[in-house]
Specification:
The complex is a heterodimer of chains A (477) and B (225).
Chain A (H helix, E strand, L loop, with lengths): L9 H69 L3 E6 L5 E4 L7 E5 L2 E10 L2 E13 L5 E7 L1 H51 L15 H51 L5 H31 L7 E4 H18 L3 E5 L6 E4 L1 H18 L5 E9 L2 E8 L31 H11 L3 E6 L4 E6 L17 E4 L4
Parallel strand pairs in A: 8-10
Antiparallel strand pairs in A: 1-2, 1-6, 3-4, 4-5, 5-6, 7-9, 8-14, 10-11, 11-13, 12-13
Chain B lengths: L1 E5 L3 H13 L3 E5 L2 H10 L4 E5 L7 H10 L6 E5 L4 H9 L4 E4 L4 H14 L8 E4 L2 E4 L4 E4 L2 E3 L3 H12 L5 E2 H7 L11 H13 L8 E4 L3 E4 L4
Parallel strand pairs in B: 1-2, 1-3, 3-4, 4-5
Antiparallel strand pairs in B: 6-7, 7-8, 8-9, 10-12, 11-12
The chains are: A alpha+beta (477), B alpha/beta (225).
Chain lengths: 477, 225
């Protein structure tokens, strides 16, 4: 189970740690004060008891048993809080204000605590007392104690209050933590959402800045300033690439024109004319590479986004399939075009998506040996529609699959076949531009290239889904 | 035909003019937009070749002003910008075709031809024929020497485009753009395969072929060799 997002925030963690430290230190402080106070109060009681015992002992040694008995009877009548008891060796009460010898519960440094019954008016009340028992010569027992019921009640109230207080503090702290982290998350989410949109290619967006002027606004301002700079740089780069395009295209243009005009002047089928033709073809290849590079650069800058419309991948598959079908047949391949039941609407540039699919199909046809099969299909995955080109050719070794989309990368096995090494880079660039994902898998045997798009949100799709159909072209023999 | 060339790259302009003249056209040239506009408005041209980026008055505005003055000379834009956006902008501004630099001269000539012929009245034909090959545009059927030829819809469109431009060179790019409506460069020449299939259907078993390959340029359909 995953913890909810609110509890995983840094803000919540900070509040949690702070709360724990605060709770522990508060409890320690209150506990110390309580412990100290009760110690002082206990000592005061104990000292009074000690003093009275010393006094009674003196009475006993000078006046004997009758003297002590008188003193006890006198003190018992006088003092409300005091408890006095004189008993013989059989614990039979001789004098004092308790009916019987009490059940002593705890012993603590010569002091005992016990419960006794006291009558207030007609009602009897069980109360706590603390005192000391000493043995007089000739086996008499003397008990001097003080009523501590009120203090014990107070202690209990204090303990309960402390527990409730701690609980309340933790609950309030957690609620506070959640509120703070919710607030943090809200601000962060705003920044994150804008960042995602910007990463998606809309460089004109900026992170909203509130009027609070806090550290989030500082962060937003800094991000915005950084974005301004990136936008300026990209703009500059675009200008440079436009200029390079212009500057390189013109000389290439002149070169091609010159070669073409020179070729025209040669008698057809002469050796020079063939040389010129070859030179023109070389120039065309150069131009092709150059155009592909410019297109990739443009797709990566995300600037073609303005030309995106709702388009049906089903139509793309049909168009490209129809364009390449005869080529596949000529290569003695079985060529299957499968459309899904859904038309597979996406937002995109028809020309670029078609070119991407054409490049994948072109590769599949190029590398699959005669007698093989190339299947082009539109799949409807839960995440969105996907274009799939599967063949049973040699495939791409797993360790090379990530590398093939890099510019100018050509695998050893394909060095000798024609191509610029930019075909798959272009597909990857088109994929990035459309928020799509290009992946290569083992078709066992062969290659399975998938271009997975994101679904267009419901309600923005035009038209109705086309019925599923399958077009199979068999090789002509 | 009379051609106006507005191009600021003087070297390119020289070759363009030379090539056009060698192809038998009458050519006027301008090195910047304002002179280009004056020429375009003061003399009748069959077609104008205009560079997108020009000093003084850029290509888009030049054509915009021509159209404001109700000058309907067909315009072919030349541009070093190959964006999808840019070609659409060019066509919206009143251009009739768009060619990206560097271009093949044969491609340019073929497109100029197509632009000028397109303006011919009577293009709302219901039948087209070249030699003994006949195309019925309403019933979408083809016949050669009286016997019907089975054609797929795309093959029909391909043949129709070729026949509407009978006697003219049609380049592979023109076919890809006009028959398939794709504006990209397929890595392999897929068009050749489509042509050879079409050729098998219309020329097989006949003594005089109609569909010809023009070396280094493209294809042409015509009755006599």
């Amino acid at each position: 189970m995953r913890t909810p997002k609110l509890l995983r925030t840094q803000a919540f963690r900070i509040v949690g740690i702070y709360l724990a430290i605060f709770a522990v230190s508060t409890l320690a402080l209150v506990g110390f004060v309580y412990w100290n106070t009760s110690l002082v109060l206990d000592r005061e009681t104990d000292e009074t008891i000690e003093a009275e015992i010393t006094g009674l002992e003196e009475q006993y040694s000078t006046l004997g048993l009758p003297g002590v008995t008188d003193a006890i009877i006198g003190r018992s009548a006088r003092r409300e809080q005091g408890i006095y008891l004189l008993a013989n060796s059989n614990r039979r009460v001789l004098a004092g204000n308790l009916d019987g010898w009490p059940q002593v519960s705890t012993t603590n440094g010569g002091f005992v605590e016990f419960r006794y019954e006291r009558r207030i008016g007609n009602a009897a009340q069980l109360r706590s007392a603390r005192g000391r028992i000493i043995t007089l010569t000739q086996g008499f027992y003397l008990l001097v104690a003080r009523d501590v019921e009120e203090r014990r009640v107070l202690e209990n109230v204090f303990k309960t209050a402390l527990l409730w207080g701690a609980g309340l503090m933790i609950v309030l702290g957690l609620v506070g933590g959640l509120l703070v982290s919710h607030n943090f998350l809200k601000r962060l989410e705003l920044i994150n959402r804008t960042s995602r949109q910007i990463m998606g290619g809309d460089l004109s967006l900026r992170v909203p800045v509130t009027r609070a002027g806090d550290e989030f606004d500082d962060l937003s301002l800094h991000l915005n300033r950084m974005l301004d700079r990136i936008e300026r740089l990209l703009h500059g780069m675009r200008e440079v690439s436009d200029n390079v395009a212009h500057d390189l295209r013109s000389p290439l243009n002149r070169l091609r024109n010159r070669l073409e005009l020179a070729a025209m002047r040669q008698p057809a089928d002469s050796e020079t004319a063939r040389d010129f033709d070859a030179a023109v073809q070389e120039t065309d290849r150069l131009i092709g590479t150059f155009n592909a590079l410019l297109l990739i650069a443009e797709a990566e800058a995300g600037s073609v986004r303005e030309t995106m419309h709702n388009l049906s991948l089903g139509d793309v598959i049909e168009g490209v399939g129809e364009l390449y079908g005869p080529l596949a047949e000529e290569k003695q391949l079985r060529f299957v075009v499968k459309k899904a039941a859904d038309a597979g609407f996406i937002r995109g540039n028809l020309n670029l998506v078609s070119q991407a699919l054409a490049n994948l199909v072109d590769n599949a046809i190029k590398y699959t040996p005669p007698g093989g099969t190339v299947v082009v299909s539109l799949e409807n995955n839960p995440s969105g529609p996907a274009l799939v080109v599967a063949d049973n050719g040699p495939g791409i070794p797993a360790q090379d699959r990530a590398r093939v989309t890099e510019r100018f990368v050509r695998l050893e096995s394909s060095r000798n076949s024609p191509g610029t090494g930019l075909g798959l880079s272009l597909v990857a660039a088109v994929a990035r531009m459309h928020d799509a994902e290009l992946s290569f898998d083992d078709n066992q045997p062969g290659l399975r290239a998938t271009l997975s798009f994101k679904r267009v949100p419901e309600g923005t799709r035009p038209g109705k889904a086309a019925p599923a159909r399958e077009v199979v072209s068999e090789p002509v023999h | 035909m009379r051609v106006l060339v507005v191009e600021d790259d003087l070297e390119a302009q020289r070759y363009l003019v030379k090539g056009l003249k060698e192809a038998g056209h009458v050519v006027d040239e301008a090195g910047e937009g304002e002179t280009g506009l004056t020429l375009a408005l003061s003399r009748p041209y069959d077609v104008a070749i205009v560079d997108r980026m020009l000093p003084k008055l850029d290509g888009l505005r030049l054509v915009g002003k021509m159209r404001e003055e109700r000058n309907n000379t067909p315009v072919l834009f030349l541009s070093a910008l190959s964006d999808v956006d840019d070609r659409i902008k060019g066509l919206r501004a009143g251009g009739d075709d768009y060619l990206t630099k560097p271009y093949a001269f044969a491609e340019l000539l073929a497109r100029l031809d197509a632009l000028v012929r397109r303006r011919d009245p009577g293009s709302v034909k219901t039948r087209v024929s070249v030699g003994d090959l006949e195309l019925d545009l309403l019933s979408r059927t083809a016949k050669r020497n009286g016997s019907a030829i089975e054609l797929q819809p795309r093959e029909f469109r391909l043949l129709e485009y070729l026949m509407r431009h009978a006697g003219q060179i049609v380049t592979r790019t023109m076919l890809l753009e006009n028959v398939w409506e794709y504006h990209f460069d397929p890595q392999t020449n897929v068009i050749d395969v489509h042509i050879s299939r079409l050729r098998a259907k219309i020329d097989k078993g006949f003594e005089a072929p109609l569909l010809h390959t023009v070396r280094g340029a493209g294809y042409m359909i015509r009755a006599h060799a």
